[in-house]
Design brief:
110 residues, globular, 60% strand
């Protein structure tokens, strides 16, 4: 059952070109967003579409793949884990972030 702990799988469209940072030693970090869509029928029988936006980060080889092959609008599947962190903004207010740390990416579509 350990394989099922803190595991996220998403299929969606990339919301922005991945922002790539390269650190000393060549290690890369990719930051990007992913939109997932869900549709259902409401009480009146009307189709309703909802879009959820997810903040994603990837390191190393995964970030290199994203940098080379992924652009805004591309459909991808990812697998990773949820993480939570906080920081103090420039006004000294505590901010909280939930993001998915991507372990694997699969390029879909065209």
């Amino acid at each position: 059952m350990n394989a099922l702990r803190n595991k996220v799988q998403l299929i969606g469209h990339v919301g922005n070109d991945p922002e790539i940072k390269t650190f000393d030693g060549g290690k890369k970090l990719a930051n990007f967003t992913l939109a997932t869509n869900e549709s259902y029928k409401n009480d009146k029988g009307e189709k309703v579409e909802e879009t959820q936006w997810h903040k994603l980060v990837a390191w190393g080889k995964t970030a290199e793949i994203l940098e080379k092959y992924v652009t805004k609008g591309k459909e991808i599947a990812i697998e990773g884990k949820l993480t939570h962190r906080s920081y103090d903004d420039k006004n000294g207010e505590k901010r909280y972030i939930t993001e998915v740390v991507v372990n694997d990416v699969l390029l879909l579509g065209k």
